[in-house]
Design goal:
alpha+beta, Phosphorylase Kinase, domain 1, Aminoglycoside 3'-phosphotransferase, Chain: A, domain 2, 5-stranded antiparallel beta sheet, single chain, 13 helices
Length: 379
């Protein structure tokens, strides 16, 4: 009975969140139509057709635009904060990535100046509210998530995604972290240390121990593993971080099963791309209730496309990969505990389930490798 009530709470919370997003997107579509010739005069000499995005995984104030010649675009926008410079927002990072990957990975084309700022007049934004916008072409294809592939029929897609990840990771950028377009002082190794220090701070390990959400032994284990990451000689490459498991960001031609596009680079960055990308396939699956065994099998198909043998992964990468899983599990606990502390856990009831599964994964990963193999076979 309790699980049924929780399921209904989760469904309602998701519905409410999506309804709010859809409403705001419709308002933004109505107000931005007449603003587009000012924002992008060479592309839209007259107001085009604008609708709220309703497919291809686009959310969060995204709009579909169709010009008179039927060329289609995606426009993304959000309000600028007080004193915020539009040149520092993540859209600039995404525009850089799309230009860099064009011809190497199926990504959208962007105009010469894809990111701009402008004013939208009217409710609910008030008078003179500044927005930042990003324009890109709209790619053909349907989200792979809509194919509803049974687990046994996903191998072909996972292999393609592994190949795509390899192409993305071939781009080396002299930086470290998600905000790599913002210049930072220091060497790569110094920035690597700063990045993992911020990860440790964000996890709030001592605070979780004080609340009884983490025991001291597990906390020490996780902290030691992240400290090792800080000192490791990591290869730093570009990564997407939200397509290996989140297939709403993967566009497919259903008739040919050909990958036609990778979209939404909001969470992209530069760093330990292998661990970032591989864990973004395995951890969300476990978080959503997929067994670790099944998630690992999906990773094995991904590795085939990536061009890495299972032995190479186990010997050369398993240790730090597991550390990335540990980090994500602790972060899930932290998010839930913060909601509990502020009496807002009912606003995102799925966080409770995520926290339970995170604890199970932490218990699993803190065993010795021999014990882990035994547990995996029993699950």
């Amino acid at each position: 009975m309790k699980s049924q009530i929780l399921s209904e709470e989760i469904q309602f919370a998701h519905w409410l969140r999506q309804t709010k997003k859809n409403t705001w997107a419709k308002v933004l579509a109505f107000l931005s139509r007449d603003a587009l010739p000012t924002l992008y005069p060479e592309i839209f000499p007259i107001p085009p057709e604008v609708t709220a995005a309703s497919s291809q995984g686009w959310t969060n104030l995204c709009l579909f635009i169709v010009r008179e010649d039927k060329k289609a675009f995606v426009l993304r926008g959000r309000p600028l904060g007080e004193g915020e410079d539009f040149r520092s927002v993540a859209y600039n990072k995404e525009a850089f990535i799309l230009k860099t990957l064009r011809g190497k990975v199926p990504v959208a084309e962007v105009p010469e100046q894809p990111v701009t700022q402008g004013t939208l007049e009217g409710a609910p934004f008030g008078s003179g509210k500044q927005f930042v916008f990003m324009l890109q072409e709209r790619l053909d294809g349907v989200p792979a998530s809509e194919l509803n592939l049974p687990f046994k029929e996903r191998e072909w897609l996972l292999i393609q995604l592994g190949q795509t990840a390899r192409a993305i990771h071939s781009i080396n950028v002299d930086s470290f972290g998600p905000n790599f377009c913002v210049p930072k002082p220091g060497t790569i190794r110094e920035r690597q240390g700063d990045f993992y220090n911020s990860v440790l701070a964000l996890m709030r390990i001592d605070w979780l121990v004080s609340r009884g959400a983490l025991d001291a032994v597990t906390a020490g284990f996780v902290r030691d593993r992240v400290e090792l990451l800080k000192r490791a000689a990591l290869k730093t490459d570009l990564y997407h971080n939200d397509f290996a498991y989140n297939w709403s960001n993967v566009l497919i031609d259903p008739s040919t099963r050909r990958l036609t596009g990778i979209i939404d680079w909001e969470f992209a960055g530069v760093g330990a791309a292998i661990y970032q990308e591989f864990s973004s396939l395995v951890y969300p699956a476990v978080r959503d209730g997929v067994s670790f065994r099944k998630a690992s099998r999906a990773l094995s198909h991904f590795l085939v496309g990536y061009g890495m043998s299972q032995e190479e992964f186990e010997v050369g990468h398993r240790f730090h990969f597991d550390t990335y899983l540990l980090i994500q599990a602790v972060q899930a606990l932290r998010k839930y505990e913060e909601l509990r502390e502020s009496n807002q856990s009912s606003c995102e009831p799925w966080r409770r389930l995520f926290a339970v599964r995170a604890r199970n994964l932490l218990d699993f990963l803190c065993h010795s490798p021999r014990d882990r193999t035994k547990i995996a076979l029993e699950r």
